[in-house]
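Practice record 12: protein with acetoacetyl-coenzyme A.
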Amino acid sequence: MNELFYLTDDQRAIRDLARKIARERIAPHAAHYDETETYPEESMKAILESGLFGIWVPDEYGGTDMGCLALSLVSEEIAWACAATATQYLDQPLGGLPILLAGTPEQKKKYLPRLATGELLAAYSLSEPGAGSDAAGLRTTAVRTADRYVLNGSKQWCTNGDHADVLTVFATVDPKKRAKGVTAFLVEKDTPGFAVGKKEKKMGIRASPTVALHFTDCAVPVEQRLGAEGDGFKIAMQTLDITRPATGAMAVGVGQAALDAAVGYAKERRQFGQPIAAFQGIQFMLADMAMLVHSSRLMVHHSARQVDAGIRGNTYEASMAKCWAADAAMKVATDAVQIFGGYGYTREYPVERFMRDAKIMQIYEGTSQIQRVIIARELLGG
Ligand code: CAA
């Protein structure tokens, strides 16, 4: 199979570095962290030590400014080994990109260099118990006083909310205004009135913590507002335009891992006197799985390259890539379990974890149905 000819030497090098770390230092721990539902300490340490953390941060703020395609390449490799660790890895740009997109020079100087090194961890908090797909319907309020905003309300399903040092929180200055009332804030973890709530017990990506957040008269200084009042929804969506390709890349990683496992097993497992790979029924399944992974990767790379080319308005392609790759990963992982048969249904083999991990790709950062809404709106013009 041919190498991706369009990668630059730097992109190839960062992909190869991520692959080495993922295979040698992350994959060996993945089953344990999944089983014990514990934070992937060793895996995150490996990523931190490798310098992969700051690749989305511009040079002037201490990063290596490698862009969205590089972020996608690294995310795929990490997800191949452990989707929960990849989710943690991508939470840093998810939480930090709003600062890059809308921060003041002071906010950028204050946070980005320490996010680039991993000294600070970030999180992104948009969803609420009553506002998942309908993000503009969020209800956490932000009331302005002389020099502060007082936040009240609860957030839901916040990745890394219990480990983050700084959280990009979306609240509303006027719920009646829907999207136009949404305003973004940088909330530091020790701000009085901020509390981490229930940690979810999840089907997959179990090593990536997902928590509720509570704000009770939580006073945030005006200097911690990101952008102007009412800019928050656009900041949230522009961030997702950049992170959705990389989330699609995580799905590619899970799909590739499932395909690799299925190919290996099909060649070893003998039934009716021959390896099951000799049966055309299995060969056709593997070929379909390979096409799904390959087409997902190409769509992810296309939308990531749009971001790197500075093309604004990549929403359509970002949604396509994320949706296609997530749905593909679910299908490929399910088929991998099928090829493993009874063994695939046990925890002795990793394919059942891939199947559980693939499921979240169709839900977080916008469900596959919401991606289709975005795609259809674009097609139909509004
Ligand atoms: N870039 C810039 N502006 C955008 C935009 C984008 N990509 N998308 C929308 N906007 C603007 C619109 O132009 C509009 O502005 P004007 O009023 O000035 O015209 C405004 O935002 C409102 O947009 P819509 O009318 O399209 O808003 P809507 O209420 O119809 O919702 C939606 C659109 C696509 C359904 C959106 O709510 C959405 O994406 N929902 C899914 C939310 C989501 O992805 N949540 C995941 C949370 S993150 C997560 O999962 C994290 C994790 O833990 C890993």
